[in-house]
Amino acid sequence: MAKHVRTPQQIAGLPDVTIELDGQVHTLSFEQAFALAHRLWRRGRAREATELHEALWRRRPDCRDQSVLLARGLARLQQFDRCRELLHSTFGEHDDTVAALLYDAFVMRALGDRREAIRDLDVVVQEHDNLPAACLILGDLWESVGNRSRAAANWRLAAQRAGERGPVAYSAHCQIAELRRNKQLPSDVASSGDPESSATDASALLGEWGRYAQASPQMHGSLRVLS
Fold first, then answer.
1. How many CB atoms lie within 10 A of CB 146?
2. Do the beta carbons of residue 91 and residue 130 sit within 8 Å?
3. Residue 109, by phi and psi: left (phi above 0), alpha (psi -120 to 50) or beta?
4. DSSP state of 95
5. 136 exposed, middle or buried (CB, 10 Å; 0-12, 13-18, 19+)?
6. Cα–Cα distance measured from residue 139 to residue 30, given in angstroms and rounded to the nearest whole number
7. How many angstroms separate the Cα of 216 from the Cα of each of 52, 107, 193, 210, 212?
8. SS3 of residue 188 by DSSP
C-alpha cells in the first residue's frame, strides 16, 4: 500500500472526504478526492464526478477553480440555469466576460460541439492566467478529441499556474502520470518536463486511491459521497 503523505491542503486544515466505491469505504484527502473526480470525468462518468465536485465545493465555496469544475458538470447534466448562476456568482460583474466564455464552452461541450468548446476555453486560457482550472478543462477537451499531447501540455500549464500546489496541480500531475504509466504519451512528451510526476508513478501520487484505481481501471462500480 502506498505511503500516505500529508498534503499542503491537509496541513492547511481542509477536511478529508469519505466515499464508498464498489462497496468499500475510503477516506481521501481533499486533493485525492479532487483527482478522483477528475478521473471519473475522464472516464465518462459525469454524474458521479459532478456529485463529488459538488461535495468538494460545499467544503470550499470560495475556491474559483472548484466552482468552475462544478459548473462544467452542471452543464453536462443539462442544468444550464444552475451552471450560469454559479459562474456569474463566482466571477461577478468585473469578470462577466470570463463567465460568459466558460458558460458557452460548457454548453457547447454538453451539446456535443467539442471544437467550439475548445475555441472558447482557449481564449480563457490565453487571456486569464489566474484560472488554472481552465487549463485543466482544456486538457480534458483535447484528450476527448484524441490529442493526448495537447492534453498533457494543458494539464502541465494548469499545475504551473496553480503554483505546483493544491488540488488542481495535484490532479494535473496525477492524470499525466496515468497517461505515462499506460504509455499513452509520445516518447518526447513522456520524457519532458514534469519533474515531480516523471519520478513518481500515479499510484504514489494518488496514495490510497492509486491502489484501488489500478485494480479497477475502468471504475464501473458505484460511487457515493458519505461525508
1. 8
2. no
3. alpha
4. G
5. buried
6. 21
7. 19, 31, 29, 10, 6
8. helix
What residue type is 95 in one-letter code? D
Read off the pLDDT of residues 69-88 as tens digits, 9 standing for 90 and up. Answer: 999 999 999 999 999 999 99
Q: pLDDT tens, 162-202?
A: 999 889 999 999 888 888 887 777 655 543 444 344 334 44
Give the pairing of strands 24-28 and 223-225. unpaired
Q: How far is the C-alpha of 70 from the C-alpha of 143, rounded, in Å?
A: 19
Helical residues (DSSP H) of the chain, grouped into ranges: 8-11, 30-42, 46-59, 64-76, 80-91, 96-110, 114-127, 132-144, 148-161, 166-181, 187-190, 195-198, 202-206, 208-215
Give the bridge partners for 26, in sequence order: 19
Contact 68, 171 (CB under 8 A): no
In the predicted structure, residue 108 carries a pLDDT above the cut 90: yes
Give 185's Cβ-side CA count (13 Å radius): 20
C-alpha cell belonging to residue 92: 461577478
Phi, psi (degrees; rounded to nearest 5) at 159? -65, -40
* Contact assessment for residue 184 and residue 202, using Cβ atoms and an 8 Å cutoff: no
Q: What is the pTM of this model?
A: 0.81
